[in-house]
Specification:
Layout: H1 2-10, H2 28-49, H3 54-81, H4 86-104, H5 114-138, H6 143-163, H7 171-191, H8 195-204, H9 209-237, H10 241-264, H11 274-300, H12 307-326, H13 343-359, H14 363-388
Helix pairs in contact: 2-3, 2-4, 2-9, 2-11, 3-5, 3-7, 4-5, 5-6, 6-7, 9-10, 9-11, 10-14, 11-12, 12-13, 12-14, 13-14
């Protein structure tokens, strides 16, 4: 009996999704795992810098989406089924190794390294499918939700391996289609369920405070690419008056994006509906990919600053905040200081100013308008904050 109790303590079954700990905080193993995604995002951003073409941008979007969905699966699995045991640590470590290997092979992913990247990618999808399958075995009531994940991810792993032998000209299409497979179980779980199961699914898909905290930390990780790009760009061209001004400009961008996210939507919970759940995740995806793209542009800004290329991802960032805010619950969080009732108006105003910036052909004025657009929600929000203090 004593031996059995020790074994269950160090290697436990996956926790039930219904056993939600409202007071759970992000664990150190989750933070450690997310460091690998720092390297992955940094790698694909670095390659985008040298390939600012339609093909390069498309490849960046696909690779970022793959990494984002793997991170989402890892984060949701840990949040719903993770324990403070060796099993959770072991499974997380395996995922870290696989993501690390994927990072190594992001260079020339559509060429020489495609076979290696896809092989590891197939491995991690099969491994994630195995983890989801385990949750259904440990908790039969959860099997109806975990089964689509395990089946689709097993199938995806086999198709990825098969794609190695398909015509090479369509490799970007294969990877793009794989993203659809990664998303499919989340959507099919709801669309194919009966009315009673749909109600239960809505309850099970509520994002915990710990998950939202981890999402915020992930946002900071992506935002860190702007800081790294700013510092690397400045050191590459050398320290002079122009590079110092450019460094300050890039740090202003980083702070503006940080401020808009955390003061308006960083701590809000989604409405308890399936649309609220999916739109929360979708808007967070848009935010992070927009910031990651800006991070690549920051490095290029020291040699060729073109504000027009910055406008599209920044508009996407503001649209994401509008979507994010539209599907939130009533906010009652001490971390939110600004008057969020005006959030949508602030963001729309910023988008309009970015539109004006795009039409202006004078680069110095474009920079001014861009910063005004980025900081107008901050300035108006802080003004209301002071007024209501």
């Amino acid at each position: 009996m004593e031996k059995s109790s020790v074994n269950t303590a160090w290697w436990q079954k996956p926790s039930k999704a219904t056993n939600v700990n409202e007071h759970r905080v992000v664990s150190v193993i989750e933070l450690f795992c997310d460091l690998v995604f720092v390297a992955y995002i940094g790698s694909i951003s670095h390659h985008l810098v040298g390939q600012m073409t339609f093909k390069g941008i498309t490849t960046f979007i696909i690779l970022f989406s793959i990494g984002w969905m793997i991170w989402l699966n890892s984060a949701l699995y840990h949040d719903l089924h993770g324990n403070n045991d060796f099993r959770t640590r072991f499974n997380t470590f395996i995922q870290m190794i696989l993501i690390g290997l994927m990072t190594v092979f992001t260079h020339d992913v559509l060429g020489h390294f495609y076979v290696y990247y896809v092989s590891v990618y197939a491995g991690i999808t099969i491994f994630i499918g195995f983890l989801w399958r385990e949750t259904g075995i440990a908790d039969p009531s959860h099997l109806v939700y975990s089964k689509p994940y395990s089946r689709v991810y097993f199938l995806l792993g086999m198709l990825l391996i098969a794609s190695i032998f398909f015509p090479h000209d369509y490799r970007s299409i294969y990877l793009g289609l794989s993203v659809i497979f990664l998303v499919a179980p989340m959507i099919s779980n709801y669309l194919l369920a009966d009315s009673k199961t749909k109600v239960d699914y809505v309850k099970r898909t509520k994002l915990s405070n710990a998950f939202i905290e981890r999402s915020n930390l992930y946002f900071i990780i992506v935002l860190g690419e702007i800081v790294i790009g700013a510092l690397n760009g400045a050191s590459h061209v050398g320290i002079n008056f122009n590079s110092v001004i450019m460094l300050i400009f890039n740090f202003l961008i980083a702070f503006g994006l940080w401020f808009n996210h955390f003061e308006f939507v960083g701590y809000i919970q989604h409405k308890e509906s399936i649309s609220g759940y999916f739109m929360w995740l979708f808007s967070f995806y848009l935010e992070t990919i927009a910031v990651a793209f800006i991070g690549a542009l920051v490095y290029l800004s020291y040699t060729s600053l073109s504000i027009n290329t910055w406008i599209v991802p920044t508009v996407i960032f503001f649209i994401a905040i509008i979507i994010h805010f539209s599907f939130n619950k009533k906010i009652n969080n001490p971390n939110i200081h600004l008057d969020t009732k005006h959030t949508k108006l602030f963001m729309v105003l910023s988008i309009l100013i970015l539109g004006v910036s795009y039409m202006i052909q004078v680069s110095s004025l474009q920079v001014v308008f861009y910063l005004v657009a980025l900081y107008i929600p901050v300035i108006l929000g802080v003004g209301l904050w002071i007024r209501h203090s």
